[in-house]
Amino acid sequence: MSRWFNERVSRSGGRVKKVAIVALARKRLVALSKCAVSGVMIEGAVMTKA
After folding, report:
1. How far apart are CA 1 and CA 7, in angstroms?
2. Keywords, A to Z (predicted)?
3. pLDDT of 3-34, one tens digit each?
């Protein structure tokens, strides 16, 4: 997801960056809910100790 964000923002800035931040937050929320509800991990996710 971070790569997706960096690719989007590197091409442009300003308003697009704000929209990309919200989109990334939504993607992360969906991935977290999938993990919590059904145990499905997103592809490429790495779990680390807090």
Report:
1. 10
2. Plasmid
3. 777 777 777 777 878 888 888 899 889 888 88
Contact (Cβ atoms closer than 8 angstroms) between residue 21 and residue 10: no
Query: What distance in Å separates the CA atoms of residue 27 and residue 35, rounded to the nearest whole number?
Result: 12
| DSSP conformational letter for 44 | T
What residue type is assigned to position 26 of the chain?
Answer: R
Integer Cα distance of 12 and 40 in angstroms: 33
pTM here? Answer: 0.58
Q: Hey, where are the domains in the chain?
A: 2-38
Rg (CA), the chain: 13
Count how many residues are written for the chain. Answer: 50
